[in-house]
Amino acid sequence: EILAGRGVAVCGVFTSEGAPSESFRDLARRLRGYIPFAASVADAEGARLLSETYGLRGLPTIFVAKRHNYTVEFHGNLEAEGGAAEAEAFIERHGFPLVGNLSALTYARYLARGSDRAYLFYDPGQRETAEGAAAFSSAERALGRVAASHDDVSFIAVSSVATENGRTTLLQDSGLTELRLPALALVSSDAKTSVALCQLGEVTEEAASEALDEFLRLRGEAMDGQGRHVCLAFQSDRADGEGSSSDPRIVPDHDYELHAHHMKAFWGLGESSAREVSEQSHGRVMRRTWRDTLMVY
Question: Among 135, 205, 211, 271, which has the highest number of CB atoms less than 10 A from its own CB?
Fold first, then answer.
């Protein structure tokens, strides 16, 4: 029930010979303001079942439980000198849901974690509708299954209007627009590398996994200080029947055309003053024009 409601819990499991220790109780008193705690006392059979279910080393123990049966066990000794500080640091690092929510209460914790982030952007108004809520839930479940293999990355659901600097939204900073939501973007902790998943398709487990793999690859290449910011599109229904999820390309789509016309109308641009260019041709076009230029990415 805790996992269904909160998505994460710190669990302490103790043998029937001893109740939850005072150290565990003190840890819970200090940290339960932002993460729920649960304690269980098990006999020999209960200990065996718990160990098999959650892959525990033995009792007593502390572990962080998340959805999709995902667990991270604390391998230190809470009762040893310095053990409480180690356990608290462990919880501060791993005590997040597979897919959390960015809010005034959680922002500081995610910032302090200092990890790379995967943002699942949503429209607050759309989530109030049955169709919008279903689309977000589907994307959240898909991302949660990917997150279960990457606990070192913070996966966060974020409102499309959320901002860090008060000028631009996180959605805009990630290279996305409100063309279609929910949408996915990955940003490195140093903001030098980002991957935005093209919004012409849905956020599926396959697309999210491919985007994360590409992000981690670029992240590794950026260790020399040269960052990269890219947008990926995946087409999984190629006519030749060959797998294509690993082949990123921009896929023409009617939604893109509608979006482009909407942006032209928004900025008051006619066909004679709007030109679509590629990464290779935009420099040449810029050199030839004498007019001030507005660039819409």
Answer: 211
Q: CA–CA separation, 116 vs 39, rounded Å? A: 31
Q: How far is the CA of 53 from the CAs of 22, 47, 56, 64, 97, in angstroms? A: 26, 10, 8, 14, 19
Written as six digits, the tokens of 43 are 């006999």
145 CA to centre of own chain: 11
Is the CB of residue 142 less than 8 Å from the CB of residue 203?
yes
Residue 86: its pLDDT value, please?
93
Q: What single-letter DSSP state applies at residue 59?
A: S
User: Which DSSP string corresponds to 145-160?
Assistant: HHHTT-TTSEEEEEET
Strand order in the sheet with 61-66: 37-42, 8-15, 61-66, 70-73
Give the pLDDT band (50/70/90) at residue 247: very low
> How far apart are the C-alpha atoms of 259 and 252, rounded to whole Å?
12
